[in-house]
Amino acid sequence: MTQSPEHHAGHQVSSGQYSWSGRKVLVTGGAGFVGSYLVEDLLVQGAHVRVVDDLSGGSEENLRAVRGNIEFIRADLRSAEATDRATQGMDVVLHLAARAFGMLYSMEHNPEMLRDNALMAFNVLDACLANGVERALMVSSSCVYDDDAPIPTPELPVDEGRPESVNEGYGWGKRLLEIQSRYVFEKHGLPIALVRPFNAYGDRYRWLGDASHVVPSLVKKVLDRNGPAVIWGSGQQIRDLLHARDFALGFRLAAECAVDCDPVNLAGGTTISLIDLVRKIAELRGIEVDISFDTTKAEGRARKEADLTKLREKIPSFRPTVTLEEGLRDMFDWYERNRAAGAFN
Ligand SMILES: NC(=O)c1ccc[n+]([C@@H]2O[C@H](COP(=O)([O-])OP(=O)(O)OC[C@H]3O[C@@H](n4cnc5c(N)ncnc54)[C@H](O)[C@@H]3O)[C@@H](O)[C@H]2O)c1
Questions:
Q1: In the chain, how many domains are there?
Q2: Which tens digits make up the pLDDT trace of 33-80?
């Protein structure tokens, strides 16, 4: 099921409190997996959209359908000057740009993950203040939570414990993003929405080999039909999955009605173990699959599941629109496209 932006043009969920019409909106990381859906959604809402992205993780292909309707700046947000230039003239800044990879890469690159993610956040917040931006969204992550966080996990403070161990540098980078957002909110009164997404999946994912996230990795392993599908760890790990298109919707709604700098978990409430996910992929594809486990590889957290109480209170109009079955079928197209393009070689 590959859907065009036009297909979703009818999907006009709104909090009813904020109009995007005519607003100049900067989406950092807008060529990325989630960012490109957000750009499409904002255009439907009537916003004038500028994207800034260095294309290190995203792709211009993700913006192909909207390229004529947006302004695109290729720049590195680790540079304060480039960030400031990209922000000039904007009413709203939605900050998604990040170095975000699967846990194998993330574990081995803690210094870069902390530095780059924190630096981008500091630059974006400074640029918002310098350029009189009227509101912002800062995207954090569920990786800010400690491995021992209660399940389901409520919006715990970020000044206790350590971030998720397999994403520690990334988690610290996101914690610093949150703390600086809070300082800016308190000192300067900039309205800021702060979201903590759980696990995204979907068909715009850019394949990163061993550094890829879990859902695309498992889809590939099953569809390759190249011996057993090997799950890292026990396979009993539980993940809370939400399609990238729905993350984009949640981001936009958060920026409409939750700009009090109070972090909100964002997830779909669709939890599944990795072994059941592999079985579901095989079943939907109509193939038999043998499963094996590589317990020498990191397991990650045993269970990642969001407490969605605050999300329902603060962003009551948010409802996921893509079912897990639809989203996984999208990923079969993703697999075929990437295989044909040689991305897996
Ligand atoms: N995908 C998930 O499961 C997940 C979970 C939790 C949080 N998040 C957060 O959601 C946001 C979007 O994630 P995504 O999955 O779309 O990731 P992504 O990697 O697809 O998108 C991030 C974008 O940022 C761009 N970027 C990276 N470094 C940059 C730099 N220095 N200058 C300019 N652009 C740069 C990349 O090119 C990419 O297009 C990120 O902030 C991420 O940390 C994602």
A1: 1
A2: 999 999 999 999 999 999 999 999 999 999 999 999 999 999 999 999
Ligand 1 atom with the shortest distance to the CA of 116: 31
For residue 5, the model assigns a pLDDT of 36
Asked if residue 300 is part of any domain, the answer here is no
Per the prediction, the chain carries an average pLDDT of 93
Which atom of ligand 1 approaches the CA of 139 most closely? 41
Mean pLDDT, range 195-210, rounded to an integer:
92
Of 26, 33, 117, 246, the residue with max ligand 1 atoms within 8 A of its CB, to mutate for a pocket test, comes to 33
| pTM above threshold 0.90 | yes
Domain-located, residue 338: no
- Domain range for 184 is 22-205+242-267+305-320
Alpha helices in the chain, H assignment, sequence order: 35-44, 80-87, 103-108, 110-130, 168-188, 214-224, 244-257, 274-285, 309-314, 324-340
Residue 170 CA to residue 141 CA, distance in Å, equals: 9
186 located within any domain? yes
Is the minimum distance from the CB of 202 to ligand 1 under 6 angstroms? no
User: 287 C-alpha vs ligand 1 centroid, how far in Å?
Assistant: 33
> The domain that contains 190 carries what CATH number?
3.40.50.720
Distance of CA 99 from the midpoint of ligand 1 (Å): 6
Going by alpha carbons, the residue nearest to atom 1 of ligand 1 is 200
Over residues 283-294, mean pLDDT = 94
Residue 12 lies in a domain: no
Q: Looking at this protein, which amino acid is placed at residue 273? A: S
Rounded Cα–Cα distance for residues 268 and 200 (Å): 10
Q: Ligand 1 pocket, 76 CB below 6 A? A: yes
Share of the chain above pLDDT 90, in %: 85
Smallest CA-to-CA distance from 169 within 144, 139, 197, 198 is with 144
Ligand 1 mutation target, pool 96, 199, 264, most atoms within 8 A of CB: 96
